[in-house]
Design goal:
single chain, alpha/beta, Rossmann fold, 3 domains, nine-stranded mixed sheet, binds malonyl-coenzyme A, binds adenosine monophosphate
Length: about 500
């Protein structure tokens, strides 16, 4: 049997392949057969451009429907899909291209010049609403392509995740990882070909690309393909949908939108939240407003989805439910001994969903696995010992110094290094401060060099030019010194307390 994920997708195409797949508001309806034909043409075009099995195809584009054909085309041709957040700027892109050495880079027309300079060894092609250069090349190609016969452990994608050291790591995901997780989710969340998924997530992260898209494709469902999350537009589109997936910020913004009512949710059977903690207050306010209990689930780039509240049965606020079928989760103390329910420990995961390692970082990969093969997530949690959701997993924090803003991870180290390199800065500490919209807001606390005056605006402007906007601190506090403990370590907990107030 061919383990290529595309073969699995193909086997689930609904009867009568002219079924709609993507409904683009104000744009075209893309049917399953059009999507698959375009993926074949793109696969042919990539091979014609010199791509060979295992080559990386890096993609930084807006959310045009053709990007989904590009993703499927890469799978078909045995290429490794490498999606990049559109917010990434020069320095970030230079690192990814240098590390992953893509054969082809697909980008927005407006960044063609920059990308072509940064990825000088790659073929660089644009993708836009009309298809762009990749679309032009595909146009001359046949609409059939013999899908490469893949092994379960062959790479399907690399997704970069930031690291505690400030250096991003490429998580290598195999066809088995993606296929097993997608199959588990379709089952767990009861997806059918009657579903219409409101898709407003970006398609360069696990949540929008794998969780959402795979659930739809593996059940022959339709997607309302929204270019981005806009609360008002989402409220208008909701009545036509049966399922919506989002990060907690989506739900907070829907609650802040006056036109959002229970009536708008009349067709919805399931709201899913993940990527960041859903506050119990948001869960409750949403339940009152919409009549729907949001289903919260837990996952990460390296593992796909790990645990989920149930479709049928109690959805307990503040928990992420039970491990998905086929996935083992344990909560362990520092010695690696499993914790009793109600005792907090590190969360470890094992199963067909767990990634193959970090791209060209064998040492880093080894560090993240235990001797008996469990992946250390870096999240802290406990098994709920009684009351609502007894036996469910509850996340209580992270052992890694990481901020999640609007569902996007930011590693303080990377930002601190950039701030420290600015003129007049002696040192800095970057923390996450509770924020009603983003969950946590990136916040910097900065000490100037003696004799130098620095300003919040100067630092923000400098960073805006260098890194993706979501990583740039929303606030910068200039202080005389940073609080330190006896070991000389900056006491970020004190800073968090001070600036949350
Ligand atoms: C955008 N900005 C953000 C931001 N997104 N700042 C902090 N955090 C974010 N997440 C910047 C913008 O560039 C802009 O900067 C300013 O903040 C205000 O922008 P906005 O218009 O309010 O933002 P918007 O474009 O609406 O985006 C917010 C968002 C988006 C929440 C809709 O970030 C989003 O779609 N997030 C989902 C991310 C996601 O898919 N995560 C899943 C990862 S996978 P300026 O300076 O230009 O004004 C994963 C695994 C798992 O975690 O379990 O799922
Ligand atoms: P990423 O590396 O972008 O895939 O982000 C993964 C991280 O997001 C996890 O390690 C968790 O810390 C966090 N995360 C995902 N889902 C949830 C959730 N439901 N609640 C709290 N944190 C979550």
């Amino acid at each position: 049997m061919n383990a290529n994920l595309y073969a699995l997708v193909e086997s689930h195409v609904p009867d009568g392949p002219e079924q709609p797949c993507l409904l683009v508001p104000g744009g075209p309806v893309v049917h399953y057969d059009e999507l698959l034909d375009e993926s074949a043409r793109i696969a042919n075009a990539l091979v014609a451009a010199g791509c060979e099995r295992g080559d990386r195809v890096a993609v930084q584009t807006d959310k045009h429907w053709q990007v989904l054909a590009l993703y499927l085309g890469c799978l078909r041709a045995g290429l490794v899909y490498l999606p990049l957040n559109v917010g990434y700027q020069r320095a970030e892109l230079a690192y990814f291209f240098d590390d992953a050495k893509p054969r082809v880079v697909v980008c927005r027309p407006e960044t063609l010049g920059t990308v072509a300079t940064l990825a000088s060894d790659a073929t660089v092609l644009t993708l836009d609403a009309n298809g762009g250069e990749i679309g032009d090349r595909a146009r001359g190609q046949p609409a059939s392509f013999r899908t490469v016969n893949s092994q379960p452990d062959d790479l399907a994608a690399i997704l970069y995740t930031s690291g505690t050291t400030g250096r991003s790591k490429g998580a290598m995901l195999t066809h088995r990882n993606l296929a097993s997780n997608a199959t588990a989710l379709v089952e767990a969340w009861g997806f059918t070909c009657g579903d219409v998924l409101l898709h407003a997530l970006p398609v360069y992260h696990v949540h929008g690309l794998f969780v959402a898209v795979h659930c739809a494709l593996l059940s022959g469902a339709r997607m309302l393909w929204m270019p981005r999350f806009d609360a008002r537009e989402v409220v208008e589109a909701l009545p036509a949908a049966t399922v919506m997936m989002g990060v907690p910020t989506f739900y907070a913004r829907l609650l802040a939108e006056p036109s959002f009512t229970g009536d708008a949710c009349r067709g919805i059977r399931l709201f899913v939240s993940g990527s960041a903690p859903l506050l119990p207050e948001t869960f409750e306010a949403f339940r009152i407003r919409s009549g729907q209990a949001i289903l919260e689930r837990y996952g990460m780039t390296e593992t796909g989805m790990i645990a989920s509240n149930p479709l049928d049965g109690e959805r307990a606020a503040g928990t992420v439910g039970l491990p998905l079928p086929g996935i083992s989760v344990r909560v362990v103390d520092d010695a690696g001994t499993p914790c009793a329910p109600g005792t907090i420990g590190g969360i470890e995961v094992r199963g067909p969903n767990v990634f193959a390692g970090y791209w060209r970082m064998p040492e880093k990969t080894r560090e993240e696995f235990t001797a008996d093969g469990w992946f250390r997530t870096g999240d802290m949690g406990e098994w709920v010992s009684d009351g609502a959701g007894k036996g469910y997993l509850r996340l209580v924090g992270r052992s890694k110094d990481m901020i999640i803003s609007g569902g996007l991870n930011v590693y303080p180290k990377e930002i601190e290094e950039r701030i420290d390199a600015l003129p007049g800065v002696a040192e800095s500490a970057v923390i996450g401060v509770a924020d009603p919209d983003f969950g946590e807001a990136v916040t910097a606390v900065v000490v100037a060099r003696p004799g130098h005056a620095i300003e919040e605006r100067t630092i923000i402007d400098a960073l805006n030019d260098e890194i993706a906007r979501f990583k740039v601190p929303k606030r910068v506090h200039i202080v005389a010194e940073l609080p330190r403990n006896a070991m000389g370590k900056v006491q970020k907990n004190l800073l968090r307390e001070r600036y949350s107030a």
